TrEMBL record:
Gene3D superfamilies assigned: P-loop containing nucleotide triphosphate hydrolases
Entries under InterPro entries matching the protein: ATPase_AAA_core (IPR003959), N-DRC_Component (IPR052267), P-loop_NTPase (IPR027417)
Source organism of this protein record: Diatraea saccharalis (sugarcane borer)
Protein name stated in the entry: ATPase AAA-type core domain-containing protein
Chain ranges of the ATPase AAA-type core domain: 216-319
GO molecular function per UniProt: ATP binding; ATP hydrolysis activity
Entries under PANTHER family matching the protein: GH08353P, IQ MOTIF CONTAINING WITH AAA DOMAIN 1
Top-level taxon: Eukaryota
């Protein structure tokens, strides 16, 4: 009951915060998150002060055994800590034995008096967390990954973020402050580049203290550079890219792709830092499959993909340098799709003209 009340309270607070942020005059601003390493730094400073506050009063010439023997305190503290942890296990076992003896004596006392011993509800044993099996990097494991390499879904992008040229669009920021619902002007290339850096490069877990993101969704019209941004992020991280788009992955598999999809995640765990890339995610989770998309078998990836993504937590030590990219081109909007097709045809003509000009210059 308390948990439900707490959840409702959190939802109301989130809705209230969203309303405040929609109004630029009542926007509370960016909430600075507390660093995960702050407590460790405070403990290290306190430990340093407790150890050295006494030793700093003495001169090295007068008492060298005090100044140069400071490691004794560190060693004794660590050893005592280890001994306490080991002793607690044995103390717990002895206390359980004492409890069993006490219960047996109470049962005898109840029998002598002629009373019925009351039933005791057994304690619910906590679930033992499953210890993940360590990966054995041997020939048998690499043989299991051979089908992935044969399918051609494993690549190593070499594109870097420095190849994305563009500045920040400050006009878009100013207009967004005046009207939060404004859709023009659009953010510049510099804004997109900065967002990719914050969300993907810092969010993979390489830098300690940064908030981790296990999945990123890039939403936008087709042929506008979403795949290039993924390659740039993977190249900046020097990561291995696993392409599980339906055209590359499920369309090549006759049976259900759940087994191979599990191998992809195991390979991503082995070859960290790694990036799993899925283009056209709307085809995987579509309610109605279009007749021209039936050969992709994309709907069979829905259940295993959801399970595998949920099984990875942000604090998972096995996936410390791992991120997933999902692309959605939103092809259901027919009017916009027709406009995109016209724009893409115009682009193709322009690219052909540019290529022809380059050829003429080379000939000259």
């Amino acid at each position: 009951m308390k948990a439900l009340i707490e959840k409702d309270k959190q939802k109301k607070e989130a809705q209230q915060l969203l309303k405040l942020r929609c109004d630029p005059f009542s926007d509370p601003g960016y909430e600075v998150k507390r660093s995960e390493l702050k407590q460790e730094l405070i403990e290290a400073i306190q430990k340093y002060r407790t150890v050295w506050s006494v030793h700093d009063r003495f001169a090295p010439d007068r008492s060298p055994e005090v100044i140069y023997g400071f490691m004794k305190t560190f060693l004794t503290e660590e050893l005592m800590k280890e001994m306490h942890v080991e002793c607690r296990k044995h103390v717990d076992d002895l206390m359980r034995l004492d409890l069993k003896l006490l219960i047996s004596m109470q049962q005898l006392m109840y029998k002598r008096v002629g009373w019925k011993y009351p039933k005791m509800t057994p304690r619910k044993k906590p679930k033992v967390p499953q210890i993940p099996k360590p990966l054995l990097m041997d020939s048998t494991m690499f043989k299991e990954f051979e089908p992935l390499f044969d399918m051609g879904i494993v690549t190593k992008p070499t594109v870097k973020l420095k190849e994305v040229y563009g500045d920040l669009n400050y006009a878009a920021y100013d207009m967004n402050i005046r009207d939060p619902d404004v859709s023009f002007p659009l953010p510049g290339y510099g804004d997109v580049k900065r967002r990719i850096t914050y969300s993907c490069i810092y969010g993979i877990g390489l830098n300690p203290g940064a908030t981790r993101l296990k999945a990123v969704l890039l939403l936008g019209p087709p042929r506008n550079g979403k795949s290039f941004l993924v390659d740039a992020a993977a190249g900046e991280l020097n990561a291995v890219k696993f392409d599980i788009t339906p055209e590359m992955f499920s369309a090549q598999i006759a049976d259900k792709p759940a087994k191979l999809l599990g191998k992809v995640f195991v390979a991503a765990r082995a070859f960290q830092p790694s990036v799993i890339f899925l283009r056209n995610i709307e085809k995987v989770f579509a309610k109605k499959i279009l007749p021209e998309d039936k050969y992709l078998n994309a709907n069979q990836m829905k259940v295993p993909l959801a399970k595998l993504v949920k099984s990875i937590s942000n604090e998972d030590k096995d996936y410390q340098q791992f991120i997933e990219f999902f692309l959605d081109s939103n092809p259901t909007l027919k009017k916009e799709r027709e406009e995109y097709d016209v724009i893409n045809k115009y682009r193709e003509v322009m690219y052909q003209k540019m290529a022809a000009k380059k050829k003429k210059k080379k000939v000259e």
